Amino acid sequence: RRKMAEDAESNATATPAEPPAEPKETKSFEERLAELKKPDPVPNPDQDQVNEKLSRLNAQIGQCDKRLSEIKAALDKANSERDKSKDATKGVIEQLKAQRAKMQVASRKKEECFQQLKDMTQARQAQQKSLQDMRRSLKFQDVGEVEQRVRELEAQIEQGQCKNMKEEKSVLQEIKQLNAMKRTIGEYQSQRSTVVDDTETKASLEARKAAAVAEIDACKKECEKLEKELDSKRAKTTEGAPNVNELWKEQKELYGQIKAYRAEIRQVNGAFKEEVNKWRDYQRVLNNFKKAQGKILAEQRRAEWEARKIAEGEPVDKDVPTDDPFVGHPFADEIYQCSDLEKCLAVYLPKDAPKADSSSDAKAAQAP
Asked: Using CA atoms in the order 277, 283, 288, 290, what is the torsion angle rounded to 10 degrees?
């Protein structure tokens, strides 16, 4: 260093000094430090508090799972009891089904008889109405009476009893109407002759209908008796058994609670992860702030050192302050050489040595 200083002094005397460059406008260290903005502090997330919340939620889920296991066992027991009750009530159920099928057959018979009676009544009423309407439109009920009246009118015309042509035309018109009435009277008499006395058929249908109603009433009484017997047997087999509907309802509610707890766990983990990310971002910004602040302070110390050395008339590089721990160390050269050797050897050594090979080498070294 002394030799380098002497060479620098000789060069300075040999060559004329260049005019100093105009200093650039630079900010002071205080201004640069003032421009640095320290980030707002972010609290470190409390891992213990989050673990406590998660433990509490997992404990609640465990309680729900335990209760669900109990409900499942109770439902299995209820199902087995129900199977036993099915075996005990199988005969009664078969009889009840047979009675209901018999009642359905009797109901169909009753409906058939009722429909036939209804059709017969409607047909009879329609026929009677048609005959009544036809009878109202007829002046005579017999063809002989109509022919006799026609002969009387013809005799009036032959004997010249008509006073004028108008009266004669009216008589001829009446004769024409009477001749047409003969055909209507024939239709009326033919329809009256087709009217059949259906009293026996109606009585038979009424009897069949009454028999079907009686059979239905008997089936209903038998069904009521069988239903009471069935209820009594089921009550004996299911005595003391839990309410299955209430268990299913509770099971559904427990599944909903577990779903809500798991959603809360996801929310807690997400919020904690977000807080951790915010804290890491704060640490990164804070480290950058400290690095920039340290750099400015180091430059400030360097500048103060140089100014003090210049004022004392000593070389600037003499005893310069540094952050390197090996500067001034008695074995600094040896330490640097070892560090360089370690870097060179690291290039040629494998990065990840397998454990099996190291164990085999150790065994080989221990072998005689």
From this structure: 170
